[in-house]
Amino acid sequence: xxxxxxxxxxxxxxxxxxxxxxxxxxxxxxxxxxxxxxxxxxxxxxxxxxxxxxxxxxxxxxxxxxxxxxxxxxxxxxxxxxxxxxxxxxxxxxxxxxxxxxxxxxxxxxxxxxxxxxxxxxxxxxxxxxxxxxxxxxxxxxxxxxxxxxxxxxxx
Length: 156
What we know:
The protein has helices spanning 8-16, 31-37, 41-57, 62-65, 94-113, 130-143, and strands at 68-73, 86-91.
């Protein structure tokens, strides 16, 4: 399959879904700032050009890999002597996060459209609910006259 350069629509739709109230990124920009920046078509084209070149070269700049972990205490805890009393936030470069979102959307689209993902593997896919997974597994068990058990876990 031949690689097709990224489009403006991909970037605009990816950034439109981002929360304006999120914590600023490592470069001190928030999604609200980036949304304002990409309204200027020349800025958006430069960001797309960076993404295209990174993809063509197969190179991800170290600037996009740099991260900072911030530990924040959870509110209303009786004691803060346990790790569970804190929340960690990872700050990355906002442009790198945007490019990763667009690549992730493309991978998901191509994986689903080419049937690379088994129908029972629905978690975290767009327009797929975890309740659909349960229904799919239960129905497949009923068809074969079997009981269905599900073990789920979330790796963060």
